[in-house]
Amino acid sequence: MIVGILGGGQLARMLALAGHPLGLKFITLEPAKDACSAAVAEQLLGAYDDESKLSELADKADVVTFEFENVPADSVTLLSSKIPCYPPANALAITQDRLNEKKIFNQLNIPTAPYRAVDTLDDLKQAMEKLGTAAILKTRREGYDGKGQARLESAADITTAWQTIAGKPAIVEGLVPFDREFSIIAVRSRTGETACYPLTENSHKRGILHSSLVRTDDPLQALAEQYINKLLNEMSYVGVLALELFQVGDQLFANEFAPRVHNSGHWTQDGAVCCQFENHLRAVCGLPLGSTRPLGHIAMLNLIGELPNINPILSLPDAHLHLYDKTARSGRKIGHINLCCKDKQQLEQQLNALQSLL
Ligand code: AMP
């Protein structure tokens, strides 16, 4: 079977690496000449909205998926009219607009931060009066890794915040005083079976995911599973879905979801029976899902901006290095390290050692 992927970055690369042992072949549509998936997948060089390239992809592949959520929803709709295409275009369209994303959470009784839609400076002023708290302004579209956002501590910050997002259609959210940030990753098959990975606690630096700690048996697992299952079923979803959550005491608030394999799920490559990449492929190809059972005490650290000396990293007994074959550049994710240890103490020791190396 040949899997087409819109996008040829590290997620496509890791999908292909996970899919080759299943006998799958891969073809990507990607505009960048130096795409890091090129070593493991055939590449069609072209824009995501190039209709002739999309037709070529549909002709060559048996099923199509995508590796990031800013591919045009129309391209996915077009591909869906020609061949099976998962996750569904509606999931992509919802997540491309933060207002629609918030609406679906609310419709499914999944709690979120209080929010207001903002189209003008006046809307922002009124919303800040209603929210009456510190807030965060986010463009409705095309924001990721903290881009297209501005924090407001008080009404004095309104004009600067509005300029920061260049007056684009936005939402403003009350700041959630969270204890921890979590994500949950789940997969749904073509026939509606679902499986969830354990909750992952995430920490960010300058808006970019820095590290993830797997929280096996967290008391909030059942609640997180309930929320993500509602989303999966509502959207008749197929593939891997990631839901980002804020924990406040014994409550969870949804922040956003990503209709794709997710950075906070990279630990599954070495820390779960079947990793998120393989499970995504199993789902979109109509194969039985694999077990999401964790294999130990697990953490993941991203390599951002520069490549460290890899020898001491590889000398750690439970470290697995994953490089993306990307040129190092400030703020750019170029790889990650998974630690999968048999007990908590070993994980803490190796995590400390790793942090001092990076
Ligand atoms: P986002 O692009 O929505 O994932 O936001 C990036 C980061 O900003 C999140 O991982 C949080 O650390 C923080 N953040 C976003 N929205 C809120 C909120 N409503 N309350 C508190 N922190 C937030």
Summarize the structure.
The protein has 358 residues and is α+β, with helices and mostly antiparallel strands. The chain contains 12 helices and 17 strands. The protein has helices at 10-19, 51-60, 73-80, 89-95, 98-107, 121-131, 158-164, 221-234, 268-271, 276-284, 310-315, 344-357; strands at residues 2-6, 25-30, 42-45, 63-66, 115-118, 135-139, 149-152, 170-174, 180-188, 194-196, 200-205, 208-214, 239-248, 251-258, 297-304, 319-323, 333-341.
Give keywords.
about 350 residues, 3 domains, alpha+beta, Rossmann fold, single chain, 17 strands, four-stranded parallel β-sheet, nine-stranded antiparallel β-sheet, Dna Ligase, domain 1, binds adenosine monophosphate, 12 helices, D-amino Acid Aminotransferase, Chain A, domain 1
Task: Describe the structure in your own words.
By secondary structure, the chain is α+β, with helices and mostly antiparallel strands. The chain folds into 3 domains: 2-85, 3-Layer(aba) Sandwich (Rossmann fold), CATH 3.40.50.20; 114-174, Dna Ligase, domain 1; 180-357, ATP-grasp fold, B domain (D-amino Acid Aminotransferase, Chain A, domain 1, 2-Layer Sandwich), CATH 3.30.470.20. The protein has helices spanning 10-19, 51-60, 73-80, 89-95, 98-107, 121-131, 158-164, 221-234, 268-271, 276-284, 310-315, 344-357; strands at 2-6, 25-30, 42-45, 63-66, 115-118, 135-139, 149-152, 170-174, 180-188, 194-196, 200-205, 208-214, 239-248, 251-258, 297-304, 319-323, 333-341. Strands 9, 10, 11, 12, 13, 14, 15, 16 and 17 form a 9-stranded antiparallel β-sheet that branches. The protein has a 4-stranded parallel β-sheet with strand order 3-2-1-4, with helices on both faces. It has a 4-stranded antiparallel β-sheet with strand order 5-8-6-7, with helices on both faces. Strand 1 (2-6), helix 1 (10-19) and strand 2 (25-30) form a beta-alpha-beta unit. The protein is globular.
